[in-house]
Design brief:
Strand order of the largest sheet: 2-3-5-6
Structural class: alpha+beta
Helix content: 55-70%
Oligomer: single chain
């Protein structure tokens, strides 16, 4: 908008106020309702109000379907423990002879046979242990998925907090520019300033309005991303994620669910190899057969009394190639899991050192900003405002000083976001989320 001396500054301020308010009113009229609303309808029955990181983590653990699916798989694996390692079901056979079978005791018409197999001692125990290890692997998978989803949700929450902080400093910067505009107008009206300075200030104010729109969009996108992790409509209160990440209470790779799952897999592979080694052991069985007899006149000595037979069976595997193949497969699986375990431990050490170095560097940069750069920029800004008000310096010096202070504040917010993300990542790497379930699931 171009001002002329006769229309905008002819002895009164109404023209200037209209010039300031008109762009804002136009922006409000063109702003979509969804942007102004910012959040899901808080009155909706299924909308969750997120007011802190604790609320967020609890909502993720409760409503995320990936976590719920992993819990169902874990329960299914635990249910197998009751069925593994039990005795095989006995078999019952009933035979009816349509034509009588003549025996020395008479004519056989019905035969009932009950048979029970008894695996070699140790086989059932190994099968039950293997089922327990599979259940342990499934349980650790729940904690791994839960910790990963929670970290992704925290990243979205940090993006929300970053947008809110940038919006706050941008809003304050815009208000300062408007105050400077009053000074520029006064100097222009007294003939000490230039109209071009007013235009530059108005352009700077309009640029901050555009920046506010971008930041609002970034916040909405971050809330939508957070909602994808919670998988429920959410409403995030302003400043909900201002708290710092809690420090890890323990730091150990042994607490990580990935390592515990690998250790359970190693034990299962060892048991599988041991079970394969027992494949050549014979299985035993006992049977009882009852035969119903009727009296017959054909054999001279038939008396028609029922007969009972007791039997013992031995099932001996003859082939050895399949057994050797199973033993070799179990051995190679054990070697592979051991290699994966060593790789995880080495990667964990590297990740922890990397995040520690990164956190120390970010903290040093923030300290340098707080102790050196920001105090200098504030002193320079105060001096520039005073000098410009009394005509001792130019308008561009004032605007540069204000922009420098504003950019340093933005830089500090970016560093704080990186610091928060690094702190939460360290909490994830430490294994604290893997060692404790938010739903008190028994380990």
């Amino acid at each position: 908008m171009v001002f002329s001396h006769s229309s905008a500054f002819s002895g009164s301020r109404p023209g200037m106020l209209r010039a300031i308010l008109l762009p804002g009113l136009l922006w409000l009229s063109m702003t979509p309702t969804a942007v102004l609303g910012q959040q899901a309808d808080p009155q909706a029955a299924d909308t969750l109000v997120i007011a802190s990181f604790d609320d967020l983590l609890s909502a993720v653990a409760t409503h995320n379907q990936d976590i719920q699916s992993a819990r169902t798989r874990s329960e299914r694996a635990r249910s197998r423990i009751r069925t593994e390692g039990t005795l095989p079901d006995p078999s019952v056979a009933l035979g009816v002879s349509p034509f009588p079978v003549h025996t020395a005791r008479g004519e056989q018409v019905v035969q009932l046979r009950v048979e029970q197999m008894l695996p070699w001692p140790g086989k059932r125990r190994l099968q039950r242990k293997m089922a327990e290890m599979e259940a342990a692997m499934g349980r650790e998978d729940v904690f791994r998925i839960q910790a990963q989803v929670m970290l992704e949700a925290v990243h979205s929450a940090i993006a929300v907090e970053r947008s809110e902080r940038l919006m706050d400093v941008t809003r304050r910067f815009r208000e300062r520019l408007e105050r400077f505009e009053d000074i520029a107008v006064s100097r222009y009206e007294t003939g000490e300033g230039e109209q071009q300075h007013i235009w530059k200030l108005q352009l700077a104010v309009a640029a901050q309005d555009q920046a506010m729109k971008r930041l609002e969009e970034q916040r909405l996108v971050a809330v939508a991303s957070l909602q994808e992790e919670v998988q429920r409509p959410v409403m995030v209160a302003h400043g909900a994620f201002a708290d710092d990440a809690p420090p890890p209470t323990s730091v150990s790779a042994e607490d990580r669910a990935e390592l515990k799952s690998l250790q359970a897999g190693l034990e299962r592979a060892r048991l599988s190899r041991e079970l394969a080694g027992l494949a050549d052991r014979p299985d035993w069985g006992v049977s009882a057969t009852w035969m119903a007899m009727t009296e017959s006149s054909i054999p001279a000595s038939s008396d028609g009394r029922d007969a009972l037979g007791i039997g013992i069976m031995v099932r001996v595997p003859l082939g050895r190639s399949e057994q050797h193949a199973h033993e070799e497969m179990a051995r190679l699986q054990e070697v592979e899991l051991e290699q994966r375990r060593n790789d995880f431990l080495a990667s964990w050490e590297s990740m922890w050192r990397e995040q520690s170095v990164r956190l120390a560097s970010i903290e040093e940069q923030i300290r340098h900003l707080d102790e050196t750069l920001i105090p200098l920029s504030e002193a320079m800004l105060a001096s520039s405002v005073s000098a410009y008000a009394f005509g001792r310096s130019g308008f561009l010096d004032l605007l540069d000083a204000e922009r420098s202070a504003f950019e340093l504040q933005q830089q500090r917010i970016e560093l704080q976001s990186r610091q928060a993300m690094t702190q939460w990542t360290r909490l994830r790497i430490s294994g604290q989320w893997d060692a404790l379930s938010l739903n008190d699931e028994s380990r």
